[in-house]
Prior knowledge:
The structure holds two protein chains of two kinds. By secondary structure, chain A is mostly helical. Chain A has four helices and no strands. Chain A has one domain (about 45-155). In chain A, α1 (about 1-80) runs antiparallel to α3 (about 95-120). The longest helix of chain A has about 80 residues, at about 1-80. The N and C termini of chain A lie far apart (about 120 Å). In chain B, about 55% of the residues lie in helices and about 0% in strands.
Amino acid sequence: MNKTKLIVSLIALFFLNSSPALALDATKAGQIKDKTETKKEDKMVRIQSLADLIKDSLATRYTFLSNMKTRLESRIAEKEIALKDMSAAKEKITEFNQPSQDYLQDLNNFENKIGEILTADKPGAIMPELRTAIKSVRTDLNTMHKILADTVKLIISQK
Amino acid sequence: MKNKIFIILASSLFLFACTIKPSSPQVTETVNDSVTPSEVKNLSPTPQIKPETEEDLLEKIEADQDNSFDQEIKDIETNIQQ
């Protein structure tokens, strides 16, 4: 009987000792989990801010080119009033609309790729797609740039 | 009697002296009103704004530069790999 009491007491003592240890492990695990999540969140914030930087820069360029297109259109209208032949310049500037539309679509695609990177399990796999998306937006802007430069040259040729 | 005459004369002289304005040396200030030709140029009323030529517009368009965003892409990649 005494032996049984002793064994029961020993088992109870073991559980009494082991419970806080387990609780401590759980706290540590929780802390590690929290740290990992904070690190992941920081990473996401950094990626998002880099994406915003790219997007802002692209948008600034797009606004500049769009404003320049408007100015050239009014310049063409002025020249037409002065009876200058602006047919070639007018035709050229209408080419601007297509890359302008493409730009909006490609910029949207770029934003989607960033969204995918932020949520994917393997974001590295989306990087080549992100590169292609940025390149497409750049190509649209460069096409718009070239059309405007050619338009001005056509206006100058009719001086 | 003499004293009285002396006092009257002295006071008259004193009063006379008080009425005379002090003859201070006249200060003349010379202002250099001459303006050099370069100053005239600077003083021209409003700078004339040249109308923007087509060449100016072309210059502005050509100043628009493409950006490869290589560094930003590299930074995104680094953050992903971390």
